[in-house]
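We emphasize that the prediction below concerns an isolated chain of 406 residues; any contacts that depend on oligomerization or on bound cofactors are therefore not represented. The input was used exactly as deposited, without trimming of termini.
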Amino acid sequence: MIYLGVDWAEAHHDLWLEDAEGRVLAKRRVSDSLEGVRELHQLVGDHVNVEEGPEQVVVGIEKDRGLLVQSLVAAGYLVYALNPLSVARYRERHVTSGAKSDPGDARVLADLVRTDRDHHRTIAGDSDAARAVQVLARAHHAAIWSERREANALRNALKDFYPGALAALPDLTHSDASAVLAAAPTPGQGARLTLAQLTSALARGGRRRNIERRAKEIQAALRAPQLHLPGELELAYGARVSAHVAVLDAYRHQIETLESTLAERFSQHPDAVILHSLPGLGNVLGARVLGEFGDDPTRYADARSRKNYAGTAPITRASGLSHVVLARHVRNDHLGDALDRWAFCALTCSPGARRYYDELRARKKTHSQALRQLANRLVGILHTCLERREAYDETIAWKHRLELTA
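Result of the prediction step, given as a token string:
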């Protein structure tokens, strides 16, 4: 066996190759290019017995995706995507001075997979379909976060000079807000909007129902007395508002496009039927859950392993007479957010989930604690459904809880 540490960077990658005794075989810096990848494989090939196969090469890297990682996996190497926090703690075992360098990090990665790889897992063998769903789901989620940040920036601008718009349009991500603010980005222009102009703007924005009633409500709020800035300053703020509105429109369009593409990709995955059967999982949440968990059937040894990865299972901290059970704060944030939303949505469509949540609240659990514990239960149910290749059944899923309360 030989062990390769790869400290990747944007422009180059540092390599450290050592044998089973920890003796250095080679070290090199290669560029982030096709030629650099070719040099990496050539370096490995100089020290590998071809007849024994590529699986004798063990690679440690702080990355689980990208062209470089895919080239290592495609070569047949055993690739370990290591958590940077774990790598940092391993480095501190050997270096207490705080010294750090790229070649040194490559050596740390090679040492780690040589001595401690039994405590880590190789990169999951998820299908291309599952990885495609993950890419789209994360892009969709990131676009929603960006849209909200842009809406908050617009809200801050309106607070400074246009409070009537905030009163008329409380949800700045809604198409009504963009339509009205595009037509009247300043208080003066807003006060001069007629009902006909407002009706037309709302229709262009996509509203189809209660247009006249909504137009009257907006007009009343925009014409309410409010303080005004000097004309030149108000126009400057108006230009800022127009820019925010244009960006929000672009985000809204891209979110709709990504959601459509995501739903199509998700529906084509073999696990989609099972995930759709679970309460609270539609196209978007189902795709996010599938993408973050992956579809490698060997990735999770049991339901507890899946719960640990999800971050819903609690951790215990015990020392001497102290013994406390805490929520995990280090977890996959994309998956954690999806599971929180899943648990909340399940409350309205699963009697068993609702009953379990109410029991937890009756035991003085906070809303967040109860949702997290419900999500933990749902993850276990999901694991069982996927393991047995069976759709969700409300009676079977909550039978144990019913027997306990009987």
